[in-house]
Design brief:
The chain is an alpha/beta fold and 402 residues long. The protein has helices spanning 2-26, 39-47, 112-116, 131-139, 176-187, 209-218, 243-249, 264-275, 330-336, 373-377; strands at 52-63, 66-73, 90-97, 100-107, 120-125, 145-148, 165-171, 193-200, 222-228, 237-238, 256-261, 284-286, 308-315, 318-325, 355-359, 362-363, 380-381, 387-388, 392-396. The longest helix is centred in the N-terminal third of the chain and has 25 residues, at 2-26. It starts with a helix and ends in a 6-residue tail after the last strand.
């Protein structure tokens, strides 16, 4: 019985192979088309390129410490047109500073339609100790070639998730995604209303305020309220963005979403105020804002902030041991050592930099711990927001951009 079954299986296999060989012989002898000759694959690559090769077309100086960099596609490097994006997304720039390759995310301040016209606008503010931002402000010039990611991030309006009215709370350079959203609403590529509460020290510090006010004058779906902490001006609120100010301007008879973009100090203050309003959790959104947190400011921190540790990094089968201070993220320590680790959001959410913790202990601020449950269960960390509490060893996937 078993012998008969084996014979039948052999015959079935012979028949299958014979049929396949006949099909191959009968096939066309012309070369197989390239995968990107097919429209869906071409479209996917244009919308989600691994890297975009750009060139600086113009630099607009708002102040010595606040500039807009306008980027256009660089056909000589293979980028014919810019990838589409949703208002609120960001680009990751991959640049070389003092011989080191580093990556930094910057919100796109232009609208999606501007990208169709061949322009991304990144508005960058000088940050004390900021390696990339200071380099860009001091050294970028027209004609400079830049490598960038595809548009990334989820700080975007979604009709199925968000209320019809977005109450935007912006602080400092956190205005950039709201400029993009205001322009997109005005150009008809986003279908929502925007009430923007723009916190600045003085009105002269409120970059793009005049432009957004002009949009608001012609488009009833956009409203701007400047909130000044160090100046009293007619038509502006004075102080900080509080629950009272939000309630004064927000819709009274319908739900609204709150989008926040700014430094961590703004989030901490605004979160306390928003908690007084009783909004549903899904209606409160924070934009990622890079490495602007410090472990010592977290009440849960239990390490020695003066500690000096060693970080052992296993990447592509090769081990590197570098210095890492207690107040320095594992990601920054790797970059300082020239290892060029993968990173995108630098804020604990996207997971692009995730690495396996092989040994040692790290501190991760709860407010930026965006790991999935599986990452926690299997011992993975996001180096961008992990700080050493001892000597640490990690395994890092080497996926540098560009």
């Amino acid at each position: 019985m078993k012998s008969n079954i084996r014979k039948l299986k052999r015959l079935a296999l012979i028949k299958l192979v014979s049929g396949r060989l006949k099909a191959i012989k009968a096939g066309a002898e012309t070369p197989v088309k390239d995968l990107y000759d097919y429209l869906p694959n071409r479209l996917a690559r244009e919308l989600h390129p691994h890297a975009q090769f750009l060139v600086v077309k113009e630099i607009v100086e708002h102040s010595p410490d606040f500039k807009s960099v306008l980027l256009a596609p660089d056909p000589s490097m293979g980028t014919e047109r810019l990838a589409w994006f949703d208002a609120g997304q960001y680009l990751v720039l991959n640049i070389e500073v003092d011989g080191r390759r580093i990556s930094r995310p910057y919100s796109i301040a232009s609208s999606p339609k501007d990208a169709q016209d061949g322009i991304y606008r990144l508005t960058i503010k000088r940050v004390a100790g900021g390696i990339a931002s200071n380099y860009i402000l001091d050294h970028f010039e027209v004609g400079q070639k830049v490598v960038a990611s595809a548009p990334l991030g989820d700080f975007t309006y979604q009709p199925l998730r968000d209320a019809k009215t977005v109450v935007g709370i912006a602080g400092g350079s956190g205005i950039t995604p709201f400029r993009a959203l205001a322009r997109a609403i005005d150009q008809g590529t986003e279908d929502c209303s925007l009430l923007l509460l723009y916190g600045s020290r003085t009105l002269s510090d409120a970059v793009f305020s005049d432009e957004i006010a002009e949009i608001a004058r012609r488009n009833p779906k956009v409203k701007l309220v400047n909130v000044l902490s160090e100046e009293e001006r007619e038509g502006c609120e004075h102080g900080f963005v509080t629950a009272d100010i939000i309630s004064r301007y927000a819709p009274k008879s319908e739900p609204y979403s709150v989008f926040m973009c700014g430094p961590q100090a703004l989030y901490r203050f605004a979160d306390q105020e928003i908690a007084k309003l009783g909004l549903r959790r899904k209606f409160v959104r924070h934009e990622l804002f890079g490495e602007y947190f410090h472990p010592e400011r977290d009440p849960a921190y239990h390490g020695d902030i003066q500690g000096q540790y060693q970080l052992t990094v296993r990447m592509n089968g090769v081990s590197h041991t570098v210095a890492c201070r207690a107040d320095t993220s594992l990601l920054r320590a790797m970059e300082d050592a020239g290892l060029n680790p993968p990173s995108d959001c630098r804020s604990g959410r996207c997971g692009w930099c995730h690495a396996q913790l092989l040994a040692g202990e790290v501190f991760i601020p709860a407010e930026v711990d965006g790991r999935r449950m599986a990452d926690k269960d299997f011992g993975y960390v996001h180096p961008c927001c992990a700080f050493p509490l001892s000597d640490v060893s990690i395994d890092v996937p080497n996926i540098p951009m560009g």
